[in-house]
Amino acid sequence: MITTYHRPQTLDEALTLLSQPNTFPLGGGTLLSHPTVDSVSVVDLQHLGLDTLRVKGNELEIGATCTLQSLLESEHCPEALRSAIKLEAPINIRNMATIAGTLVASDGRSPFATALLSMDAKLSIDRGPKTVDGPSSTVYGLGDFLPLRPRGLITLITLPLNTKFAFEFVSRTPADKPIICAALTQWNSGRTRLALGGYDKSPMLAMDGTEAEGLESAARNAYHEATDEWASAEYRMDVASVLAKRCLEAL
Ligand SMILES: Cc1cc2nc3c(=O)[nH]c(=O)nc-3n(C[C@H](O)[C@H](O)[C@H](O)COP(=O)(O)OP(=O)(O)OC[C@H]3O[C@@H](n4cnc5c(N)ncnc54)[C@H](O)[C@@H]3O)c2cc1C
C-alpha cells in the first residue's frame, strides 16, 4: 500500500527522495498501486520531463516515463516492435504504463523486454543527485540490467535505429502473452542478435554474432531446459528454431 506520495519538480529532488529507505519511483503506477500489505513511499516522476522521444544520430532516445502507447504510435517505432508492445498489455494499460516501469517489472514472458534485449537497448540509471564531480549516472545494457535489476532511477532508454528488426511469437490466443517469442535484430555490419522470451524470470539472449550463421541451432540450444507449466523444453526448442528462422526471413 502506498502510504507516502511525493511529486518532485526536479531530477535532483527526485534522486534525493529516492535515497530514502523503502522509497520507489512511480511510473504509470499500474503495478505499484496494487494493494499490498507492505507500506511504501513513492516518488511520482510525472513532472520531471522524462516523457520525451527523440532521434539522436542513429539512436532513438526514449525518456523513462514515455508510455508504451506513445512509443507504439511514434513514427520511429519499427513495425515489429509495435506487435511486441501490443502483446505486452491492452490499450488502457499501455496508455499508463511507462517504458522504464515495464522493463523493471518484466518477467521472461514479456514480449517488450524480449524485443529490447534483442536490440541491445541501453538504460541510463541515476543513483543520486549531481555532485561537484558531475552526475552519478551509469549506462547498462538491458542484458546486464535484467538479471540484477539494480536500484536507481532509470532516466533514459536508447534503441539503435540503423538496424532491421523482426518479432515472431506463439501463444494460446492472439492477444495472450507468448509461450515463446523470438526477437531478431540485425545491424548493417552483419551483427545479429537473437533474444527469446516466454519463459523464466527474464528473456534470454540466445545469440549475438557477427552474422546469422547458426541462428536456428542457437535458438534451439538456448531453451534446452525451458520446461514449465506452459510447455516442455522439447516443444520450446522446436518452436524457438522455427521462430528464429521466420524472423530471419522477415528481415
Ligand atoms: C491488473 C494488473 C496486473 C498486473 N500484474 C502484473 C504482474 O503480476 N507482473 C508484471 O510483471 N506485470 C504486471 N502488470 C503489468 C504492469 O502493469 C506492467 O509491468 C507495467 O508496464 C508497469 O509500468 P508502470 O509504468 O505502470 O510501472 P509502475 O507500476 O509505476 O512501477 C513498476 C516498477 O517499476 C519501478 N519503476 C518505475 N519507473 C521507474 C524508473 N524510471 N526507474 C526505476 N524504476 C522504475 C517502480 O518503482 C516499480 O518497482 C499488471 C498490470 C495490471 C493492470
Characterise the protein shown here.
The protein has helices at residues 11-18, 68-73, 79-88, 91-94, 99-105, 111-118, 142-148, 215-222, 233-250, and strands at residues 2-6, 23-26, 40-44, 53-56, 59-63, 122-126, 137-141, 153-160, 163-170, 180-187, 192-197, 204-209. Strand 4 and strand 5 form a beta hairpin. It is built from nine helices and twelve strands. The protein has 251 residues and is α+β, with helices and mostly antiparallel strands. The protein is 30% helix and 27% strand. The chain folds into three domains: 2-44, 2-Layer Sandwich (Uridine Diphospho-n-acetylenolpyruvylglucosamine Reductase, domain 2); 53-160, Uridine Diphospho-n-acetylenolpyruvylglucosamine Reductase, domain 3, CATH 3.30.465.10; 163-250, Enolase-like, domain 1 (2-Layer Sandwich).
CATH class call of the largest domain: Alpha Beta
**CATH architecture classification name of the largest domain:** 2-Layer Sandwich
Q: What small molecules does this complex bind?
A: flavin-adenine dinucleotide
Q: If strands are numbered along the chain, what order do they take across the biggest sheet?
A: 4-5-8-6-7
Rg computed from alpha carbons, rounded to a whole number of angstroms: 18 Å
Largest sheet: 5 strands, antiparallel
Write the topology of this structure.
Elements: E1 2-6, H1 11-18, E2 23-26, E3 40-44, E4 53-56, E5 59-63, H2 68-73, H3 79-88, H4 91-94, H5 99-105, H6 111-118, E6 122-126, E7 137-141, H7 142-148, E8 153-160, E9 163-170, E10 180-187, E11 192-197, E12 204-209, H8 215-222, H9 233-250
Parallel strand pairs: 1-3, 2-3
Antiparallel strand pairs: 4-5, 5-8, 6-7, 6-8, 9-10, 10-11, 11-12
Helix pairs in contact: 8-9
